[in-house]
Amino acid sequence: MAGLAQPVALVGISEKGYVSLEISAMGVGGHSSMPPAHTSIGLVATAVAKLEAHPFPMRLDGGVGALLDYLASEVPFGKRLVFTNRWLFGPLIKRMLAATASGNAALRTTTAPTIFRAGTKDNVLPIGAAATVNFRILPGDSVAGVVREVRRIIDDERVQVRLLKKGNEPAPVSSTASAAFGALHRTIGSVFPGALVAPYVLVGSTDARSYAGLSPNTYRFSPLPMAEADIQRLHGTNERIRVADYERVIQFYVALIKNFQP
């Protein structure tokens, strides 16, 4: 992390919610030599472009604030002053974090068009078109709130917005004062000496949300050292981990099990 000499071990005390919406429109089919003024593809493309042009607002209260509180004592004085006075420097912090994809995702409910379905022939106008847009919901926002905001942004009665499945709300926030968090903290310190341990909200989805009803606290941690370039490769080209890091993963889980033994 910029401004820190040592690595930061981020422990997920919550995770963002998840919902996918279908954005669709019907138009006039027929031969492409006589197109209408607005095709179904054009209507959906315009709606998706509106969503990308109007992202959800950035917020520091969705998990970033707790992270900054933990790191403030370790950063140089200038950044410490900024981190501990968010009431004044909030816009600057947001601008700094939003410079990377991972930082931007930590600050807001994200909007990601992932699928587009329309015609199958280059000389035929499709009657209908649809796009799937995936949203990762920051704590404090909700599935219903995302649907309302999407409809407000698109603001076109010719375009339909439909919920795909029910989605998942953001997970409950787990305590950093529990014995379990303490054991996890000690384990990280023994396997990754010098690393700073700090809580954050996971931007992806995990199976941990399924345990929320079984345990008062649920934590998410991957014992893999990752630089920004490694993060960008997740689910993408050349995704990989180093052999030495895989060995460290094994060491971590052995130590974690021992630390939880009575």
Automatic annotation (TrEMBL):
Q: Which UniProt keywords apply?
A: Hydrolase, Metal-binding, Protease, Zinc
One molecular function GO term is: peptidase activity
Residue intervals of the Peptidase M20 dimerisation domain: 13-158
Identify the InterPro entries for this entry. Bact_exopeptidase_dim_dom (IPR036264), Pept_M20A (IPR047177), Peptidase_M20_dimer (IPR011650)
In this record, what's one Pfam family?
Answer: M20_dimer
Checking SUPFAM superfamilies in the record gives: Bacterial exopeptidase dimerisation domain, Zn-dependent exopeptidases
For this entry, list what GO says about its biological process. proteolysis
Gene3D superfamilies attached to this UniProt entry: 1.10.150.900, 3.30.70.360
Q: At the top level of its lineage, which domain of life is listed?
A: Bacteria
* Segments traversing the membrane: none
Family, according to the entry, reads as follows: Belongs to the peptidase M20A family.
PANTHER family this protein is in?
A: N-FATTY-ACYL-AMINO ACID SYNTHASE/HYDROLASE PM20D1, N-FATTY-ACYL-AMINO ACID SYNTHASE_HYDROLASE PM20D1
Q: What is this protein called?
A: Peptidase M20 dimerisation domain-containing protein
Its lineage opens with: Bacteria, Pseudomonadati, Bacteroidota, Cytophagia, Cytophagales
